[in-house]
Every structure is written in C-alpha cells, then in structure tokens.
Amino acid sequence: MQALPTYTKTYHTENYPAIHPTRPELSTAGKVVIITGGGSGIGPKIAHAFATSGATKISILGRTAASLLSTKASIESQYPGVKVLTFVADISNQGAVNHAFESTKKTFGPVDILVGNAGYMPDPAPLASTDISEWMRGLDINVRGNLILYQAFIANSSPNPTLVHVGTAAANFPAMPGGLSAYAVSKLAATKMTDYFAFENPNVRVMIVHPGVPDTSMNEKARDVGVVMPFDDIEMCANFMVWAVSPEAEFLKGKFIWSNWDVNDLIAKKDELSASDLTTGLLGWP
C-alpha cells in the first residue's frame, strides 16, 4: 500500500523515547483519569500507559466485566499504588455512564483527564444494500454515545480538564472501497461534535487523536473487506495519549492529530501552526 501522507517529517509505526510515559515531563501524578473502552482494543494499553506515567486514580469503562477486571488486575499487580475502578457501561447508556462518572468523582475526586476511546465499527457494506439498523448503530454509539459521555464529563470534571477524543483517519480520507461509510460518517460526525464541545467549553483542553492502526478486532473488520494497512505498534498508540495530555502538547488544543506524527516535529511547527491547520473544514476554502 502507498505510504500515508504525513504532517511531520518523521512518521512513526513503533514506540519511541519522546512519548515514553516514564518521562518526568509527561507525568500524570495526582490526576484523576477516565478511559472508555478500557477493557479491549487499545484501551488496556492506554490505562497501563497512564499508570506508568504516575496516575494512581484510574477509572475504566467497557461493555464486558471480565475484560475490565483483567485490565484492573494487571495494572494493580504491576503498580501496587494504583487504584483502578471498573464500570460495565456502553457509552450509549446514559444511566450507566452517569453512574461511572459520579462514582469516580465521589471516590477519587473531580475528573482531570478523559480519554474517549470507546467506539463501534458497523459491519461494512455498500450504502445501497447495508442493513440500515446496523448502519445507524454507528451513529448511536459514536455520536450519541460521545454526547452522553461529554455531558457526564463536564458535570463531574475539575475546573480545567483535558479531553482526548480517539478519532480516526477514516474521517480525513476520501471515500474508499470496502463499505466503511457507516464508520467514517459516524466518526466524522463525532469529530465535528467534539469541535463544538471544545468551542462551547473553552476551559477544557480538547484534542482529537487518530490512534494509528493497532492490531485490534475493530481493525480486523476493515481488513476482512480488503482495507489493508500495516499495523502500528500498540504501545506507541497508547503512549501517545499520555504525551497528548502533557504540557508539551498544550499548543495542540483544538487540533486533530495522528499518533504516528513525530512529537518533536510537531513542537518544531508550533509557531507556524495557523488557526485552520489540523482542524476539520473544507479544503481550498476560505
């Protein structure tokens, strides 16, 4: 496959020192962290990365109790000072999401960092023949679910919190073969909704991050219909989330970035980033 275009000179597919969560500059010590989709895909690795970076109060949400408890046990055994709360919650279930955030606030304190990692890829199919209920399920989870998530977050957050919405490059790409319209459309809509959330809540530091292409069951769906891209190191994908909430990435507030992009190259571009760079809009206008 042709190499993907890149905003930075260096395009990473493997973990590298600048984003390693043991760096003191990336410390999340003292922060209350919530991660959705915390039991599967890249979620457990993201939770581990935050524990490595010093966070000792972590809540993870997911649809399966067993996978959440496995993540909790793995983290707490590796980091005895870390406490992990687990909540069985589909993000489209408002009651379950509200309970998770309210319980986290009651136990740990106001939420400082939210990594909105949960998402759903509807079964790929052409628009002319897709099952409409399955197609709309993408909107229900990826858009309505994140709206529920954002409302719970803002009601239970600290005064100046940080939100990382885990987006996808599918929202950046032109239409392509494979029948991925339901996923691309719902994730693009979620991206625009996140833009509005950032605009309406200027006290919140918001970023949208394409996590790369880790070897997960979600990406296997795309591969099954012929959309084949080389897998990225899942450790890189997870560790980048810690860098994204660090002071080093403060200048990327409101931006859509890829975890493959070299962070030192991004920092070097800090002064030349325009208001429209790395945002959603219409190419060629204004």
Automatic annotation (TrEMBL):
Coiled-coil region(s): none
Record bears the keyword Oxidoreductase: yes
Record protein name field: Short chain dehydrogenase citE
Keywords: Oxidoreductase
MF (Gene Ontology): oxidoreductase activity
SUPFAM superfamilies tied to this protein: NAD(P)-binding Rossmann-fold domains
Organism superkingdom: Eukaryota
Cited Pfam families: adh_short
Gene3D superfamilies reported for this sequence: NAD(P)-binding Rossmann-like Domain
Family recorded in the similarity comment: Belongs to the short-chain dehydrogenases/reductases (SDR) family.
Ranges for domain Ketoreductase: 31-217
